[in-house]
Amino acid sequence: MHTSPAGLTNTLRIARQQLGAVREDGAVVFLLALVAALGLVAALGARHQEAEESGQRARYQAMVDRQWVEQPERHPHRVIHYGFLVFREQAPLEFFDPGVSDYTGTSIFLEGHRQNTANFGEARHATGLSRFGRLTPASVLALLLPLLVVAAGFAAVSREREGGTLGVLLTAGATPTQLLAGKVLATGAVGALATLPVALAIAAFIWPGLDSPASGVRLGALAAIYGVYLAGWVLLTVLVSAVRTSSRSALAQLLALWVVICIAAPRMAASVAGALHPLPSRAELTAQVEEALNQAGDSHRPDDPFFRSLRDEYLERYDVTTVEDLPMNWRGVVSYEAEAVTSQIFEDHRQELVAGHLRQNRVMAWSGLLSPYLAARDLSMGVAGSGPGAMEAFLAEAETHRYTIIQRLNELHMHEIRYEENDRSQRLRPQHWAEFPVFGTEPPPLGGVLTDRSVSLAALGLWIGLPLAGLGFARRRLSRVGAGRSG
């Protein structure tokens, strides 16, 4: 739609008048300074903590890798039980939005015959005070910034109505569209001003260390997510101010909406997701796994039906009569096959748990249609690399690495250790340990992250579209006000 110079002038004039009213309101100015300061403190604190944690993880991983390589001569099965730690690398933007990483753990102890869970989540070691919530740039933008927008814009139109100046504005050359656009522009400028310190701090932290265009794209995606989220609050605030008869009622309605959208709906959605798709407790899951393992067979029992059948199969395959005549160490074969069976059992149960988490996540994603806060947080965690998907990817990568290491050790047992009734006295040279792969993680690709969150993207689209449609209704109401004033 073409905008005339006069129309643009009226819009900017109204925006300046609204900004002047905001500037004269000491409470709004104080809240603006507070949100900006909290955002800056959150960014500085999160960056410091991220640097400290990254350094710790790097040191510990280097120590673990060094201990692995510097092992003395050992029997390979002893190494299987020796185990080793792996640490999840932090994503570049995880300091901005730590997501679920504080609760899911940062390291896993990998060993043979079992699949462990992640340990040392930050929340598990937090003080009582920090359990009330960790201050992060994401939480400031998602929770506190909307309150500033509400404080700055709840009286944007209603104050004109209460002061008797609304009709004057509409009959003095300004159209309802220009009036609403000016109010939206001014309210949005207040919100954008509060985000400026956070944006500059994050750019200063991240931009020099961007190692690929993909990292810059992720940073831009985060800016777009919170920009749309902020715009939705601005549009909603001006809309409510335009349709309510008084500033007090507009403020009450907006605060009620903030409580529902940002506080009540997320907790209700989590409760509904848990009720619709309950997950087994740790004790229940352990019992299920143990039962499946007992049914699979026991590699330590010579007369176990499964492994007796496996022995007969190998004897027939290599056309020999005793396991001593096999071209490989039978004990290593048993360990190899047993690890394959037990790992599949562990993985099957893990996949069932992952499927349960995905079903719960889908409920939360659809809840984003009612709470844009949920949609913005879902997208923010995904782009930052700190969402449930990134944690599941870490667990999957760790399990793949564990299985690869354990089976390579079993292969060394099969081919480098002579078969004896008790072969544990034999050792392998330390040079073997340096030949094993090193663990590393990669965050899920951004394209996949956004594709998997199409519902959240649609929810943010509605968050913009519905208030815009409502402003169209408000514009028609204001047109009648202007027409009545002219008459």
Task: Give a verbal description of the structure.
With 487 residues, the protein is an all-alpha fold. It contains 17 helices and two strands. The chain has helices at 5-24, 26-69, 76-82, 101-104, 137-153, 158-163, 166-171, 176-206, 213-243, 247-276, 282-296, 305-317, 330-367, 372-384, 388-416, 446-451, 454-486, and strands at 84-87, 107-110. It has a two-stranded antiparallel sheet. The longest helix is centred in the first third of the chain and has 44 residues, at 26-69. It is elongated, with a radius of gyration of 31 Å.
List keywords for this structure.
single chain; 487 residues; mainly alpha; two-stranded antiparallel sheet; elongated
Write the layout of secondary structure elements.
Elements (H helix, E strand, L loop, with lengths): L4 H20 L1 H44 L6 H7 L1 E4 L13 H4 L2 E4 L26 H17 L4 H6 L2 H6 L4 H31 L6 H31 L3 H30 L5 H15 L8 H13 L12 H38 L4 H13 L3 H29 L29 H6 L2 H33 L1
Antiparallel strand pairs: 1-2
Helix pairs in contact: 1-8, 2-5, 2-8, 3-15, 5-8, 5-9, 5-10, 8-9, 9-10, 9-14, 9-17, 10-13, 11-13, 13-15, 14-17
